[in-house]
């Protein structure tokens, strides 16, 4: 029997039957056992160092369209490190060697087409607690912090969390209009954000209407339009068909940014009794079997990415859309100015291109 070495050597290598040949030792390193993070979601909570895995699927368990040949981190906040990222037997695996509170994301790429196929948010924080109901009550149960928050004290900017344009599953960082400069003083939940430039990631703002199908492929782009039409302007998505209006809704959709087992609240779930603490922070009371910790006043981003009312206004998205025709694409949010009880409205109608935080509610 005879085999030929690769082109660098023209000399054949003869292997004689029943002869023994010495070979270099092959070191075997078994993969560490990974913690299964559970059912498919767009956000996964990690609260300690370790190796983790989650299904590479959409929220409803269906396959991601496209053939991805690469998985890697997309962006991360200061101190956060994700390593050993790989796609194995239908799961995304990654390791957190040193636990640091913050946020990061992992994406699946089609490297040949330079296309990001899907993006998952990794939320590194103490395990969020449930708040909002007494034993046996049917009222909504909320998490004790906004998505992306690493604190719960409303006076700590680290409790602000991340910001989402309505109907999009990927968060966007606070930034000034037209700028890609970091604004850590605006939202410490981002601190300093590092992007993985190997995979052509770029935080940017586009003044152009987008097809609702593009949001998975461009998670780092803040989208809006200055077009004014039928009284409802500055939307990130153009009027198309019914899916446009129900990107967020109940039951939980494939674009819901909450961890598994939770979803974005409805208008009715914010229809509760409230109280103010000595600093004017708003919280749910124990009245009518509901209790909730005070809410941080993180403000929001306008249609062009400009931060507004940081430290002054509480805003939270609901999953309820508002749409009456082409151009009229709004959504409802919860809104309150700190220290001004008269400003409290259970829900208010705003533009979908605004970016606001999300406080998740438990699916019962």
Number of domains: 1
What is the average of the pLDDT values?
Answer: 78
Characterize the biggest β-sheet: 5 strands, mixed
Give the low-confidence spans.
176-185, 284-290
Strand order of the largest sheet: 4-10-9-6-14
**Can you tell me the overall shape?**
elongated
Total of helices: 1
Please indicate the percent range of residues in DSSP E strands (runs of 2 or more).
Answer: 25-35%
Structural topology:
Elements (H helix, E strand, L loop, with lengths): L1 E3 L7 E3 L20 E2 L6 E4 L3 E6 L14 E8 L5 E6 L2 E6 L5 E9 L4 E10 L5 E2 L10 E2 L20 E2 L27 E3 L8 E4 L13 E4 L17 H4 L16 E2 L10 E3 L5 E3 L15 E2 L5 E2 L4 E13 L2 E10 L7 E7 L3 E2 L4 E2 L2
Which key features would you list for this structure?
five-stranded mixed β-sheet, Fibrobacter succinogenes major paralogous domain-containing protein, mainly beta, four-stranded mixed β-sheet, elongated, 1 helix, 364 residues
Report on this structure.
It is a single chain. This protein has 364 residues and is an all-beta fold. It has one domain (35-362). Helices cover 1% and strands 33% of the residues. It is built from one helix and 26 strands. A five-stranded mixed beta sheet has the order 4-10-9-6-14, with no helix packed on it. The protein has a four-stranded mixed beta sheet with strand order 3-5-8-7, with no helix packed on it. A hairpin with a 5-residue loop joins strand 18 (274-276) and strand 19 (282-284). It is elongated, with a radius of gyration of 24 Å. It starts with a strand and ends with a strand.
């Amino acid at each position: 029997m005879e085999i030929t070495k690769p082109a660098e050597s023209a000399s054949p290598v003869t292997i004689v039957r029943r002869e023994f040949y010495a070979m270099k030792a092959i070191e075997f390193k078994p993969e560490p056992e990974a913690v299964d993070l559970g059912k498919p979601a767009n956000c996964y909570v990690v609260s300690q160092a370790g190796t983790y895995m989650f299904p590479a699927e959409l929220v409803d368990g269906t396959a991601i369209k496209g053939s991805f040949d690469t998985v890697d981190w997309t962006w991360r906040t200061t101190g956060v490190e994700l390593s050993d990222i790989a796609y194995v037997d239908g799961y995304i695996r990654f390791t957190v060697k040193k636990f640091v509170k913050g946020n990061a994301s992992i994406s699946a790429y089609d490297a040949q087409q330079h296309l990001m196929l899907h993006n998952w948010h990794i939320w590194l924080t103490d395990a969020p607690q449930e708040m909002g109901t007494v034993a046996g009550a049917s009222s909504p149960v909320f998490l004790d912090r906004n998505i992306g928050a690493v604190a719960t004290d409303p006076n700590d900017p680290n409790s602000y969390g991340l910001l989402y344009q309505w109907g999009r599953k990927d968060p966007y960082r606070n930034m000034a209009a037209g700028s890609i400069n970091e604004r850590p003083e605006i939202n410490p939940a981002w601190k300093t954000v590092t992007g993985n430039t190997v995979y052509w990631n770029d935080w940017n703002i586009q003044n152009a209407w987008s097809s609702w199908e593009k949001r998975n492929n461009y998670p780092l782009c803040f989208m809006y339009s200055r077009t004014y039409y039928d009284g409802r302007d500055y939307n990130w998505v153009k009027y198309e068909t019914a899916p446009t209006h129900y990107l967020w809704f109940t039951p939980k959709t494939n674009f819901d940014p909450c961890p598994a087992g939770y979803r974005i609240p409805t208008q009715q779930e914010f229809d509760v009794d409230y109280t103010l603490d000595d600093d004017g922070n708003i919280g749910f009371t124990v009245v009518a079997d509901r209790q909730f910790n005070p809410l941080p006043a993180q403000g929001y981003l306008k249609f062009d990415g400009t931060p507004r009312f940081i430290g002054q206004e509480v805003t939270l998205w609901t999953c309820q859309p508002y749409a009456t025709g082409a151009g009229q694409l709004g959504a409802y949010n919860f809104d309150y100015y700190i220290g001004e009880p008269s400003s409290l409205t259970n829900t208010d109608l705003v533009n979908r291109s605004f970016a606001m935080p999300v406080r998740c509610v438990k699916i019962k």
